[in-house]
Predict the 3D structure of the following.
Amino acid sequence: MSETVPGVAGTALLPLILASGSPRRRHWMESLGIPFELQVPSVDETPLLDEDPQDLVLRLAELKAEVVARRNPGRWVMAADTTVAVDHHTLNKPLDVEDAVRMLSLLQGRAHQVHTGFCLQKDGEIHSLVDTAVVRFRPMTEARIRWYVATREPMDKAGAYAIQGIGALFIEGVDGSFATVMGLPVERMGALFLGLGLLRPWVGFPD
């Protein structure tokens, strides 16, 4: 899939390519006014044996960016990947309703980590990072967990919840970046874009 989304001003660069099908990441890019084109990569997101969750999201972000960058020489490509971790469990998107109930049962009434890997690359130039936030859940009864799962919101979300949606009702607090929990470490991404001087040609950002 390829779709171009204009930014806030004319650009001296071709639009950045966002290698993601996530509507949350698209939302952030549109809100920032950065022109981008969507190209969704097809990659195997299965964790490696005993893979640390931070290593997982970094590997997948770099892999997604690499797959798209290979077919778009001379273009900046951005990708990200997010997972949830609690104790020794890595919680990606639930497989079904009962898997979502299992995940939320693990998270309720306690804190967990959300890791988002980020990669920006062009022609072998690679900038990548992992950002982590800690999310604290309120206690949830099984009835409330099943009610929430029945809304279907959890079914395509890492950790089986959306902090920007109905899931916010169950969040007690966040230590770190709200954007990272949504799936894009916007604060650190912005610092990287500024450091590389990319915002000026893309959106007319002043010195």
Observations:
- The two ends are 35 Å apart (CA to CA).
- The longest strand covers residues 125-137.
